[in-house]
Amino acid sequence: MIIRKAWVDGGPMDVDAWSAISSVASAALALAAVAIAVRTHQTEHRRSRFETARSLLQELNSGETVAVRHDMARLHYGHQHDMTPDLSDADQLRSHFASYYTMLWCFERIEAGRTSLVAGSPGRSGDPVIEYLDSRLAWHVAEFACAIPTARAQLATTAPDRTVKDRDSIKGFLRPLSALQDRGVVDEVFASGTCPGSGVCPCECHR
């Protein structure tokens, strides 16, 4: 039987031992590569989720929503700033109805995006992406918990049956309101869908 040997550091070493060492080294390198790939994927995934959260917040502060929020503000607390809308004017009335529904649809998109982020959560408590999003949504949601019913009540006065047809679309706002209440970042006093009034609501209409 011929035993193959190699010389290492001045002494013989079985070639099979070399092969075993080489295999272990290769496996270690492969595991390290996998660990790096997993870490990179996690980092990119987290960055992507934060970017999604940021884009959802933009829904409230850019583009068409700026004009819509101005219209909603007139319905909400325009009487304090000499901005009370003339709802007897057909064009103004159409504009305010359009703004009301656009605002609800904006929150519906935010709620859909937030639900997607929650579903993609890493599964541990204290998801930093959800905390980032909810902490910045909280003030807006609390404000519109007053603004939406206030605007709705004003618009209802112009309808023949004194109602606004928003049974389905308003759910796009009520769901994120409920979700933020469940997390404790928006007070539960808004649960009824009506403003709780001075001392609780953050809106200027109580000042």
Kindly name the structural category.
Answer: mainly alpha
Computed over alpha carbons, the radius of gyration is 29 Å
Average residue-wise pLDDT = 79
Low-pLDDT regions: none
Strand tally is 2
Strand order of the largest sheet: 1-2
What is the makeup of the main sheet?
Answer: 2 strands, antiparallel
Strand coverage percent: under 5%
Cα distance spanning the termini:
99 Å
- Specify the helix fraction band: 55-70%
Written description of the protein model:
This protein is mainly alpha-helical. The chain is built from five helices and two strands. The protein has helices at residues 15-58, 64-77, 90-119, 128-156, 171-182; strands at residues 5-8, 11-14. Strands 1-2 form a two-stranded antiparallel sheet. A hairpin with a 2-residue loop joins strand 1 (5-8) and strand 2 (11-14). Helix 1 (15-58) runs parallel beside helix 4 and helix 3 (90-119) crosses helix 5. The longest helix is centred in the N-terminal third of the chain and has 44 residues, at 15-58. It is elongated. The termini are far apart.
